[in-house]
Design goal:
Shape: rod-shaped
Radius of gyration: 49 Å
Structural class: alpha+beta
Strand content: 15-25%
CATH class of the domain at 295-460: Alpha Beta
CATH architecture of the domain at 295-460: 2-Layer Sandwich
Number of helices: 12
Largest sheet: 5 strands, antiparallel
CATH topology of the domain at 295-460: Heat Shock Protein 90
CATH superfamily of the domain at 295-460: Histidine kinase-like ATPase, C-terminal domain
Number of strands: 12
Oligomer: single chain
Order of helices and strands: HEEHHHEEEHHHEHHEEHEEHHEE
Helix content: 55-70%
Length: 460
């Protein structure tokens, strides 16, 4: 009996020891879990990101956890928010559409995102971005939702500033482009205006030929008309029975008063002079029309040799008193370009060459302007050279700068070469170079891609 009791006592003591050890293990695990929970809570409280947990099993989805960042940004202590609906932080009246979409997604157990207007405890508002993720139990049912977010007011303001800055930049670029177009147009109009007097002079000379020839032809027609009238009168008298002997002396007198030999020689020449004069005027007008035509906005294939000849015709009065022009135009394919804009470049360079020759003191007899064209692989090269005064080395790097000019006031705006560079480089993807030596002359070399501005430059 005593042995049985002893065995029961020993078993009870062993069970007590086992229970004590189990309790100690449970306490240790509980303590570890509490430490881990505190660590996680500390970590969540240390971050600036907003965290909350809402209980989906209760009415109104009350918050059962909020971190310090969320509470502080809304002006609360964490304990003040526990048990309250998230609507305290994001009032429905400020977020009707966003909260409706958010709620639908949460009821379906989805991860949902939204931009909300949050309200602080003292009534002010700010913007938050939030992501809500479901927390499920072991059976897969959604029991809670974890919310993660932050104050995005500053970021939205920065985005708005960036948007406004982008809009401002776009507007400024459009304005700059508009001004560039106006400057190019003004420079072209300036060129055309400067050429107007020369064109008038060029047209006036053949018009004088035409006028003089027409006046001569009118005089000749009057003399021939008198002779023809005398002949007809003589025929009438002979037909009426008068003797030819009586009629012919009077007719001979009229004939002698008309210089038929002179008229027969000069009338054809007068017609030739008239025809040449009309053709010359037509050539000038056609060249002027081709030069001044605004052209297409888009680029199209064009004959640059013909464009250079047209520009030389238009600018003839600018250079004919300063220099002789030599052209060496090689065989070129049609080049994809805006030929009207390139006409403006050619005109500017030819007029500059003529002025450089004039400034050097040379006469039209020994002044020279040379224009050469050739194809170099997938580019065409145009060289416009003169034997004028040249450009000082200190100015070579400035000549393409807007408003830079060495001409006297009223003789130049400093826009010509700047616009020429813009047209060749920016508009056509080409290159414009300059070689110059003071007292010797200057050469401008243009290289243009045959297929248009997208073609890379060929190696020299």
């Amino acid at each position: 009996m005593e042995d049985a009791l002893q065995l029961q006592l020993n078993a009870a003591l062993l069970e007590r020891d086992l229970l004590r050890q189990e309790r100690e293990r449970l306490c240790a695990r509980l303590s570890q879990a509490e430490d881990e929970l505190k660590l996680r809570d500390s970590a969540l409280n240390a971050t600036s990101t907003h965290f909350l947990i809402a209980d989906m099993r209760q009415r109104g989805w009350p918050m059962v956890y909020v971190n310090r960042a969320l509470a502080a940004d809304h002006g609360y202590e964490p304990q003040e928010l526990l048990g309250n609906s998230p609507g305290v932080l994001n009032p429905p009246e400020l977020n009707a559409a966003a909260l409706n979409e958010l709620s639908q997604g949460m009821r379906q157990g989805k991860v949902v995102r939204a931009q909300l207007t949050s309200r602080r405890k003292e009534g002010s508002t700010f913007c938050t971005g939030i992501t809500m993720a479901p927390i499920r139990d072991h059976e897969g049912r959604v029991t809670h939702y974890l919310g993660m977010g932050s104050d995005i007011t500053a970021r939205l303001a920065e985005q708005e500033r960036a948007k406004q800055l982008q809009a401002q930049l776009t507007a400024e670029m459009q304005e700059r482009e508009r001004m560039a177009i106006e400057l190019r147009l003004a420079q072209k109009l300036e060129s055309v205006g400067r050429l107007a007097a020369g064109i008038a002079h060029e047209i006036n000379t053949p018009i004088q030929y035409v006028g003089d020839s027409v006046a001569f032809l009118q005089s000749a027609q009057a003399e021939l008309g008198e002779l023809l009238a005398a002949c007809l009168a003589a025929l009438d008298r002979i037909e009426s029975g008068e003797s030819p002997v009586e009629v012919l002396p009077g007719l001979r007198g009229v004939q002698e008063g008309t210089d038929l030999e002179f008229l027969n020689a000069e009338i054809p020449r007068a017609f030739e002079r008239t025809s040449d004069g009309v053709q010359r005027v037509a050539d000038i007008v056609r060249a002027m029309k081709e030069f001044a035509h605004p052209g297409h906005v888009e680029q199209a294939a064009a004959d640059l040799n013909h464009a250079l000849k047209t520009t030389l015709t238009v600018a003839r009065n600018e250079y004919k008193y300063s220099a002789q022009v030599d052209t060496h135009l090689g065989e070129l394919p049609d080049v994809v370009c805006n030929v009207s804009e390139l006409n403006q470049v050619f005109l500017n360079l030819i007029v500059n060459a003529a002025q450089a020759v004039q400034e050097s003191g040379k006469s039209a007899a020994n002044g020279r302007i040379s224009i050469t064209t050739e194809r170099i692989r997938d580019h065409v090269q145009i060289r416009i050279a003169d034997n004028g005064c040249g450009i000082p080395k200190e100015n070579l790097e400035k000549i393409f700068d807007p408003f830079f000019t060495t001409k006297e006031v009223g003789l130049g705006t400093g826009q010509g070469l700047a616009i020429a560079r813009s047209i060749v480089v920016d508009k056509h993807g080409g290159v414009i170079d300059v070689e110059s030596e003071p007292g010797v002359g200057t050469s401008f070399i243009l290289s243009l891609p045959i297929e248009g501005r997208s073609t890379p430059r060929a190696a020299a």
